[in-house]
Request: fold
Amino acid sequence: MQTESKVFPEVNIQNFLLLIDEWAADQDPLFKEIFYVQFLSELKNRGKAVLVITHDDRYFDLADRVIRLDYGQISVRN
Reply:
């Protein structure tokens, strides 16, 4: 059986939309970098829609769109 990910070969993701809420928050810095840069971009390349909820603004530039909620105000950046 072929898996969906080279970074995490044991992960076989069948869904089109993934919601990831603060998943990398408590990860070590190296794994956090792998998660945001490699794993999420690989999901995108496979046509998956990924909604990532995070406070880590170091990776906002990797997103196609950033929806920010700041003190009750919503802003969108494409």
